[in-house]
Amino acid sequence: MARWKPWAVAALTMFLVAAAPASPRYAEVRPGVALAFPADHGAHPDFRTEWWYVTGWLETGDGPPVGFQVTFFRSKTGSDPANPSAFAPRQVLFAHAAVSDARTGRLVHDQRIAREGFGLGTASRTDLDIVLDDWTMKRQADGRIRTKVQGSDFVLDLVLDSSQPVLLQGKGGYSRKGPAPSQASYYYSLPQLKVSGRIQRGRKAQAVTGQAWMDREWSSTLLDPSAVGWDWLGVNLADGSALMAFQIRDASGRPLWAGGTLRPANRPATSLGPDAVRFSTVRTWRSPRTRVTYPVERQLTVRLPGGERRWRVRPLFDDQELDSRAAGGPIYWEGAVTVEGGRGYLELTGYASPLKL
Questions:
Q1: pLDDT of residue 266
Q2: CA angle (252 as vertex; 246, 257 as ends), nearest 5
Q3: Is residue 27 part of a domain?
Q4: For the whole prediction, is pTM greater than 0.85?
């Protein structure tokens, strides 16, 4: 789903308001615009925000699997373009990474933030090549993507190798997120990525293999004013299929909008409209720290031309809550999950309090 990453949006809110002129101008998302590669792997600085979002599962060979997430963000502040100062914060870059460690039943995470320039952060406009301090994500000459992040409790140094073509979400990459056509993003995914590299937890470094999913989105619009949060799921199925589904909820928990895509292995993708996606709750978990209750076990029902399909979504472990209040962000749940015949990631926002964008 088009995801304004919760902690990043909240952390920037006051800064962006202060930096922006009275009527900042951003590029608009419109239907019918063909995505072009490799340029669309790179940054789109005229749009308000975008992200490069990777989630996946790693096998270490001597223990349970490990979930991981690495995300880079770019946000246009709306600062006055007439300001000649090199210090004007025109673009801000964020990065966030987390590891779901089933050995300990803990999620650990870290982040970086800097304005673009001054050797601190860059995001290429011609291909995927992002540098933020000592964190990087780059598409190499051989087409593989390498990302390296070093947190306080972990290090990830991973290579992602595409095994399938780009998956355009929505209608040719134009993905609706609400009742109004303007509530949309440009959105594509790279599912079924083959992963190799290493992970370090504490002082122990290990070689890893695995699978990952990458989402790319850029947009300038906000969610519907009555939206409080969203549920998003991305799954690599063992038969080579790829499944993405999301819903955006109002204060009563009802979906304001929903959508997704199912691409069977070696077959065309089916785009799923708002009436074709339904999430239901099987089991909830209450955080012992924040007292927030999350629907961590779900059933996803998808209506297809040939009938309905259902998947039971189960977490790798329950406690994958991310409390980003120390960095100015919200509380939300994001973690590794399984379905029958597949593995993926689930994100749940707006359960602690309405998400303000």
A1: 86
A2: 30
A3: no
A4: yes
